[in-house]
């Protein structure tokens, strides 16, 4: 007979999902996203949402915003906020004034009743141009691409 003791398995009380564009053009307006927090049985989570956008892994230049969440919450970061964030990142490394580069998007939902916190993250990037694809029906070429500045 085996008398082995195993630690109990603790499942997350709720899940956090983040929906945001992978690439965002600085010229296309604010970067928007949606955070969804639901218990494993489907009910909405009420609490506080923290969204942090970080532009540099070494120096941790970041912007954090707090929101209330009740199952789902939308967030946005203006083009001006993102430009300032990216410019601060560039000043820390070199004289290049580019506002492009990688971003980390970290979200954290803190449940109002228990204080239990669940996190989720995504990678993204800021681009200087936006590409739009159109179907050209006047020729047999099909799709063409237009760069928007």
TrEMBL record:
Residues 10-80 form the Macroglobulin domain. Pfam families: MG3. InterPro entries: A2M/Complement_sys (IPR050473), MG3 (IPR041555). One of its GO terms (cellular component) is extracellular space. This is CD109 antigen. It comes from Pelobates cultripes.
């Amino acid at each position: 007979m085996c008398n082995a003791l195993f630690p109990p398995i603790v499942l997350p009380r709720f899940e956090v999902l983040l929906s945001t564009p992978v690439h965002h053009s600085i010229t296309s307006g604010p970067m928007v996203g949606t955070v969804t927090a639901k218990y494993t049985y489907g009910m909405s989570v009420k609490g506080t949402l923290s969204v942090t956008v970080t532009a540099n892994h070494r120096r941790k230049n970041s912007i954090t915003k707090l929101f209330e969440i009740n199952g789902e919450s939308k967030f946005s970061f203006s083009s001006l906020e993102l430009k300032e964030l990216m410019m601060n990142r560039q000043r820390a490394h070199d004289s290049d004034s580019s506002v492009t580069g990688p971003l980390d998007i970290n979200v954290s939902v803190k449940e109002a009743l228990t204080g239990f916190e669940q996190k989720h993250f995504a990678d993204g990037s800021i681009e200087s141009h936006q590409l739009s694809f159109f179907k050209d029906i006047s020729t047999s070429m099909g799709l063409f691409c237009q760069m928007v500045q």
